[in-house]
Model the fold of this input.
Amino acid sequence: MTPRDALLVNLRREGMPTVPFDINLSPYQQSVFREKTGAASPYEWFGLLHRGLFDNPVASSNGSESPSASLPAGTTIDPWGVAHVPGSAEAYHMKRLVSPLAGDVPLSTIESHPMPTTRSASELAPIVQEIHDHGFASMGVMSQTIWETAWAIRSMEDLMVDMATDDDRATALLNKITDIAVIRARAYALAGCDIVHLGDDIGMQRTPMMSVEMWRKWLKPRLAQVIDAVREVSTSTLIFYHSCGYVEPFIDELLEIGIQILNPVQPESMSFESLHTRFGDRLSFWGTIGTQTTMPFGTPEEVRRAVFQNVKRCTPRGGLVIGPTHMVEPEVPWANIVAAHEACQEAIPAPPLDSVGWDQ
Done:
C-alpha cells in the first residue's frame, strides 16, 4: 500500500490503515523545525501522505491595479492587485491587506479589474504524475476560492454592503472570480489530482460570518459551479473545503453541493464528537486539534489524549486526517508538535508504506 492508497482509503471511509497526519508550520516554527531535526522538509520528516501543488496565479499582462494608499517598504502586490503590508515584529508573518477596489468605485471599474492567469492542465499534469510516481496523493490547492478573494479585492465591508443591498458590483466581482475558480478547478481535475482543496472562511469563533440565507444566495451557487467543473471531468476526485470557525449551519448544504472533506474543524468553535455523530457517515474531517487551546497551552499528554480520542471515534471506518487546525504559530511548544505526530503513529501502528522519499 502506498501513502496515496492509505490516505484515499481513509478519506473515502473505507478503512483506516494508518492515521494520516498534516501540519503547516509558520515561518518561525519552520526555523524551530530545522534546528530541532536538522531536516529540510517537514513533509518528509512528519511522513505526510500527500503533496500539495499550486497553479500559482500570475498577474495579467495589463497589470493589476495598485491600491492608492501610500504603502510602506516591504509591501507586495499579489496577482489579484491586493497589497500585503508587513506588520510589526510582534506580528511575525501577519500582513495587513489593502484592497484596490475599496470605496465608491463605479461598476465599470470592477468589470475591468484585471484577473490573473493560471497554469493549464497540461502544465500541471507532469507535476501530478511525479507526485503519484513517488507514491503520494496529490492535492490541488485553490484556497480562498471565491469569497475571500472577492473581499480582499473589494474590502470586506464594501462587499458585505454590496451583497446586502443587491448591488450589481457584488454580482460582477463574484462572477469574475467564480469564472477563474472554475478554470482552476477544472485544470486540477484534468491534471489528475486526487483532491481539490477549496475554501473560504465563512465562520467566526462562535457564529457564522454571514447568515445562511446570504451565503445561500451569493456563495453557494458559485461554489457549486466550481465543484461541478471538477465533476464534469472526474467522479473520483475528492472535494476538500476549508473554513475556519463555526460553520455547522452550512454543513448540510455543503454536502448537498458535493463537499466530501471538511477542514479544519476547530474544537474551540464546534464539537468534533457532535459533528462526527451527525455527519460522519457522509463527511470526512481534516484537522481537529485546536491551535488556540490544546496545541499552545496543553501538555504533551493532553495533546496525545486529544489525538487518541478523535481517532477512536473514526476507527475502523476512517474519515480523519489529524492535524493542528491552523498554521502552527510561535507559541506552540515543539514538544506538543512532536506529541501530536507520535500519537498518530501510536494510535494505529503504521504498516509499511511503499514510497520514495521526495519533497517537491
